[in-house]
Structure formats: C-alpha cells, structure tokens
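QUALITY CONTROL LOG
STEP: pairwise intake check
CHECKER ROLE: data steward
CRITERIA: each record must contain a sequence immediately followed by its structure tokens, with no blank fields

ENTRY 1 OF 2
RESULT FIELD BELOW
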Amino acid sequence: MKEFPPLPLPTLRLRTGTPADLPRLAALLTEVHPDLPVAVETLERRAARRSPGEPFECQLVEHEGRLLGMAEVRVPSDEDHPGWLNVEFATLEPALAPVLLTLAEALAQSQGAHTLITTVLDSWWEKLLYEERGYHEHDRMWPSTLDLTALDFSRFAGQEAKARASGVVLRPLSSFGIFDEAGQRRLHRLWSAVERDIPSAVPLSEWSFETWQRHVLPGLEGREGGLWLAEAPGGDWVGLTGLYEPIPSRPGTLHNDLTGVRPEWRGHSLGLALKLAAARAALERGFTHVRTSNHSLNLPMLAINDALGFVRKTARIILMKKVGEENPGGSDR
C-alpha cells in the first residue's frame, strides 16, 4: 500500500482522480496559470493517447468538495526514456505546494523512476520550489506565436522558387489517397528520422510504430491539408511539417507539431517552403494563428520561425532531478 505525505489540515481530502474529474482539473490548471489555459479537450486527448499499463497517476486534494490542488506523474511526451517520469503539481494554495510536490515525487518513485522532469514557465513561482528541491535546468524551449493574417508571403518568393528548383514537390498528405498501414509506416520512418535530428539537450526518444499511431493519427483524422510532405523526384518523402491539430483553449489557433528535412536535402529552403504551404492551407481552413515550441539548441528552426514572424513568449524550462540509479535498457517509445 502506498504511503502518502500527511496533509497540513485534517479537513483536506486526498483521492485518486478519474476521467470524470477532467473538467474540474482543466479549470484548476487554468485558474492557477491563466497565462497558459488548459481545455478539458486537451486533457481528454492526452488520456486517450495513453497506452495500457503506461505509468500514470493523479491525486487530487479537496476541501469540502472544492478542488484545491493536484499531484500527477506521467510519461513525458518527448523525454520518454526508460526510468524518466514527468512530475507535476498545481494548487491555488501555495502552502500545499511542498506537500503536493513530495506526493508527486513519491508517486513517480513508486513507478520505478530514477529521473524526474517537469516543465514550468521561466516566470512561474513554482520554479523556485523545484530548484529548492534539487531540480536543475535540463533544457529550454521557446514557445512562439505567428499571426497568419499578418504573414506577407511575397517576402519569401525567392526561397519558394529555390525550393521548386530542387525538383521537390510539396504536397498535403491527403493528396496521396488512402492512408493505409503501408503509408503510415512510411510516414513513421520519416517522422522518426526528422525527430532524431532535432538538436536538444539529449536525443529525443523514438516512438515505436504503434505508439506513434496512437499519438499522431487521431490528430490527422478529418483534417485535410494539415500535414505537408516534401516529395523528391524519385518519390521519396524527404521532409514534413505538421500543422493540423487545433488548440482547444485558443480558438483559431493550430499547433505546429514537427518540421524537418532529411540532411541530404537541406540547403534548398524546403523547411521554410513547407511551413509556408501549411500556413496557406491553414488560412484557407479559417485559422488565424500558429503556436509552436522549439528547443533552444535548434538554431536553424528558430531562425526560420524568426524570419516568418513568430513572436517568442516566456521560455519553458524543463527541469530535471535524479532520484536513483539508472538501469541499462532501451526505450519502448
């Protein structure tokens, strides 16, 4: 039986969260940090993509039926390495914060974690508590937003002409017809190759085909023109950009998931051209803004986004804490 740290008041109630709690949890997270609102659809999407048996637990703290805080442990979305787990707490009562963090850490260690990570904005008060508990900066991400209605496509006519001169054709995934398992595996290979090349503090873990299906395919369903591919003269897919998933808490806004080009095809402005093609399609679909987030070490992509007019927001800091010995073994992502 798990032992939880004592709550500071006997009137507080600790219980395990359920899917029925997601609306209240989304409201809590938004109230705690209005600068980063969370929609219930986002939490539902995350839950639906969780694999059977995947480490996860959420504990809620209530007082007379009012939700005051949460402590959660889950598999990180990108840093999905063996023994790494994401810990998170949120509360409207700062006095509860140390207890909730202790609880989240205990949950993670009960799941076999030896490395804890969490993500905070550089301006959040929680960052100091994490640092006091031994967390240090592992990586830094730059969130940014692009106003599509202000994007002057004519400024990039030269780069788009350069991309066309390479012989590469930019096409939406939907133009390739039926997206069967063979096509999915083909896209998964390209996706994995692009992710392996992203400059970051440590190499991103690679999703298995089945995990990739669970995380990516639901976002593609019914969203024509959201994912664009660069097709080389021989028919190989050599680049992609994903601009297909709406952000529920930000109407009219799409999340730019992944953009990249295979090394042998770089130098032809294909990354920029892919982003422009996806931006045109997004405008035609009625979207007005794009949000993305890039590793601070990914200077080439940051340069492309700066040129397009993305406006950087407060940095997202990925904090890390070692709590045990690392065991050898590969990721099953």
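ENTRY 2 OF 2
RESULT FIELD BELOW
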Amino acid sequence: MYLLRNIIAGSHRQSTIPKKDQPVFLHRLSELRENGYPLDQSLSFLFLQFSSLKNQDQLINNLVNGSSISETLKMLGFPSYACMHLYFAEQYGNIGSSLSETAFLMKHRENQKKKLIAILQYPLFLILLFVFVSAVLNMYLLPRMTQLYQSIGSDQSKIIIIADTLFQTLPQFFIIALLFISLFTFIFTITLMKRSPLERWKTLSSLPFAGFYFKHYHSYLFSREASTLLMSGLSFQQMLQTFIDQPYRPLFKDIGRFMTEELERGQSVYHTMLLLPYFTDELLRITQHGEMNGNLEKEWGFYSKYCLAALEEKSGRYFNFLQPVIFTLLGIAVIGAYLVILLPVFNLLQTI
C-alpha cells in the first residue's frame, strides 16, 4: 500500500507551482527573508508544502551555486512580469520588499480576472440558455403552430412568419459569428506574433477597452521599475541598459533600446516617451513635469503608487457598466421569445 501511494504521488509530480498558490508562495518567501532566512533555506522550507514538486534539490543547488531568484522562480512557472521585477530588485539589492510587492501585484491581477469571470459567467449561461430555447422553438413549437393554423384553415400571422424566419436563421447566425470570431482571432494572433514587441503592443494599446488596461499596466510597470532603479543610484543610461539586459519582457527590452537611441540623438525623455504609445497621458505629463524640476525618479515613484489604484477603480467602472448592458440585451431577447410563444396563442383564441 505504501509503495502504491509512492507510485501514485510520483506519477502526479509537477515542475511548477500552481498559479493560485504563487502569490502566497512569494508572500511567505518575503516573510522568511525578513526574519533572516537565506533564500536557499527559505525555498527549502516552502518546498515542504509542495511535496509533488519535481527537482527541488536541483533548484536549491542552482540557487546556492549562483543562480538568481528570478531565474529560479521562472523555472517554477512564475509569470514574466514577476520575474522581471525581481530581476531588477537583484540589481539594487532589495529582494525582501520586492517579493511582497510582486505578491501583491499578482494577487491584484488574479482578483481582476475573478471579477471579470464573475461578471461574465452568468450572462454567458443565459446566452447559452437562450440559444437552447431558440433551437427548441425552431424545431418543435413553431412547426406545430404552423400545422395548427393549417388545420383550422387560418392564415399564419405575421408574427409567426417573422418568428419562424428569425429562429431558423438564428442558429446559423451564431455558427457563422462563432466561426468568424475564431478565424479573426487566429489571423489577428498570427499577425501580431510576426511583429516586433513594440509594434505588437502598439496595436494592442489601440484596442477599445483592452487598450486602456494595457496602457495603465505598462505605465505602472515602467514607472515603478524605472523609479526604483534610478533611486538606487543608477544613472539614466544604466537604468535603460538594465531594461535591455533583462530576459523576461521583450517589450521593455525594446523600450530600453529605443529610448537609448533617441536620447543619444539629443531628444528629451518626455519627447522620447511621446513616441511610445504604451503609456498613459498622465505618465507623459508627469514625465514632462519631473524632467523640468529634476525630480523625475521621485515623481515616477509617486505615480506608480496611485496608478494601480486608478486602474482598479476604472476597471471597476467598466465592469459595472458591462454587466447591466448584457442583462438588458438578454432581457429584451427573452421577452421577445415569450411574445413569440404567447401572441400566436391569443390570435388563435380570437379565431375560435
């Protein structure tokens, strides 16, 4: 029995930490670091809670032999934005607070996803239910209504004719729309992947609704990382070189290269960032103001602190607007379906 349990446990071993556990893992790692534990001992302790994790000893040995914490977490399946933040933290030596900040950001993103899913899952269920009801009407109810009209020698009402046409074309419409959306998404994704990171995110930042999120998110990441690196003593050129050297986010690597080239041509930081469509207007104004008074790194730091809160507030407004619109459209559709069922019955009663 014991051997069987070991075989079963071994067959279910995984090489990464589940996404839902990653924020807690980072938060606990931060607490252990603040209490004086070295990174290797901290990881060894936390790995006890993930007995199915493969290559635990190898990961710890790599860390002891010079592997960075960002590389280790990347091997454990952490997202690239989290690894990039910890990579920068390794450059200025403040791993402890960076771990807790990254855990907070990951938790925030997870909460946003949960809110969006919670808002959309019930309307999606109602849409599927409406499609099912439409199919039932098309296959069973409307043909019997037609037979009933013919049996009593009465002409079909205009409502029955319109409803019959509508519910016959509705399934075809949904199938064609689904195929079109799938094909468009596939072609759009393939086209984006062929472009450079700068061009790719330029396109994504111009999308309605989603572009707002991308701009605020990249503005938050850039202002936070750039401010922290500059306040740690790096020059502006060294900060950009650190962006170029990091292996986790191709967009920030290309931003570092682009800004370096523009600054070498004599452009100001503000005019250089005007050419990058990934940042909010607020960040551009703050950059202009900070560059004029010589407090650019401080003002970027202040902006990064309230940018995430502003993003959450505006995302909440979008979510609160989206759900009533979906419910209103579904309500109109459901009322229409009831009218299609009831009005012909009333017409028949009048002819009897």
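INTAKE CHECK: passed for both entries
DESCRIPTIVE NOTE, ENTRY 2: The radius of gyration is 29 Å.
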